[in-house]
Structures are given as structure tokens and as C-alpha cells.
Specification:
It is built from 7 helices and 4 strands, in the order E-H-E-H-E-E-H-H-H-H-H. The protein is α+β, with helices and mostly antiparallel strands.
């Protein structure tokens, strides 16, 4: 089993945090995105989408997408449960994880990919030189991310973690989103004390350094 990874990318970080919380060790290969390693023929054969992370199983099966990889391991190693236990908790974990991704992570990526010169022609992941930047998408991304922060701060006024009293993958997604967004100069407003408290608590977990 092999995990194709890149230390500087947020999506692989979600997997690394998850594995660290579970105490699971997996062999890794670094795919250097800065040098275009994701477009090398050998890697294209593993993942034609040219993104990381990818988990290659011993039988050659390849699983892309960070949460798909985490769900694979959750089925093998259910303890501690990071996707929830009963139906209600599982629904809440999925809801907050999806909100963080759709309203925060992807909009933050739009800001970065449509403003930084290094992403010129590469405004979508896995594409090289044929996707122009659209400044309006960056504006929309900032607005969406701001709404997510407001929603999370309100939620965290009554809940220790995003989906409830226990740490779950919803917190991993939200935390990586907030950390990633900082690269686009999207920070947490000082008024959001609940969100700042939560961020500090997650940052103090050993898995945050994975």
C-alpha cells in the first residue's frame, strides 16, 4: 500500500491528519507539484486526474480524493470513530465536513488559483496551461469563505467541535480549510472568538503537525 502525497498541498494534509489521529502508518511517495510531478507519465498512469493524494493498494487499485481515502481506512480501522457513530452523528459529521469543503475549501482555492501568478493557466487542479484565471471567481470565493467563518463561529458557540462534542473529520476538513485559506490572506476576524478557540485547540493536537 502506497500513499502519493505532497507536503505543501492541503488535500493530502487532510489524509495525513486523519491517519495520525488513527495511529495508522502508510508508506508514502512525495509527488513534487512545484516541479510538475503530477503530470509525469508514470503518475498519470496512477491518477489520470493528475492530483494528490492517491492511495495505491497492493492489488493495484488506486483511490483518489482525500475523504475517499479516509473512508477506506475508516472501514478497516473503525476505532476511534472519526466519521461518527450513530446515524445522527454521522449525518452531522458529513454535513459540517461538506460545508467546510464546499463553502470554504473550494472557494479559498478559487481565490488562490485566480489571483496568484504561479497559477496562471492552471486555475483548476490537474490542468496544465489551458485554464485561464477569472478574477471574479476570486471575489466570489472571498465572500463564500467569509460566510463559512460566520457560520462556524456561531456553531462553535454551542459545540466544542464542528459536529458535536468529539473531534471528527469535520474538524479536519474545517481546520485544513482555515489554514489553507491563510495563504490567500483569508484570516479569522478578531470578533470570532469561538472559531479562534477551536482553531487553537485543533492546532494543539499532535495530528495538526502531520
Amino acid at each position: 500500500m502506497m500513499l502519493y502525497d505532497f507536503a505543501g498541498a492541503p488535500s493530502p494534509r487532510r489524509v495525513r491528519m486523519y491517519l495520525a489521529e488513527k495511529g495508522i502508518e502508510v508508506s508514502r511517495v512525495e509527488v513534487d507539484l512545484r516541479r510538475g510531478g503530477q503530470f509525469a507519465p508514470g503518475y498519470r498512469a496512477i491518477n489520470p486526474g493528475c492530483t494528490v493524494p492517491v492511495l495505491e493498494l497492493d492489488d493495484g487499485t488506486c483511490i483518489a480524493e482525500s475523504m475517499a481515502i479516509c473512508r477506506f481506512f475508516e472501514a478497516l480501522y473503525p476505532e476511534p470513530p472519526l466519521f461518527g457513530t450513530d446515524a445522527t452523528e454521522q449525518g452531522l459529521v458529513e454535513m459540517w465536513s461538506r460545508r467546510a469543503e464546499l463553502e470554504g475549501y473550494l472557494p479559498a482555492a478559487d481565490v488562490l488559483r485566480n489571483t496568484l501568478r504561479s497559477f496562471a493557466g492552471r486555475a483548476l487542479p490537474g490542468r496544465d496551461g489551458d485554464v485561464p484565471q477569472i478574477p471574479e471567481l476570486a471575489d466570489r470565493g472571498r465572500a463564500s469563505f467569509a460566510r463559512l467563518l460566520e457560520r462556524l463561529d456561531t456553531r462553535l458557540a454551542d459545540s466544542e467541535f464542528a459536529a458535536g462534542p468529539r473531534f471528527t473529520v469535520a474538524d479536519i476538513t474545517a481546520f485544513v480549510t482555515v489554514e489553507f485559506a491563510a495563504r490567500a490572506k483569508l484570516g479569522i476576524p478578531e470578533a470570532y472568538a469561538n472559531l479562534a478557540r477551536w482553531r487553537a485547540a485543533v492546532a494543539a493536537r499532535p495530528s495538526a503537525g502531520a
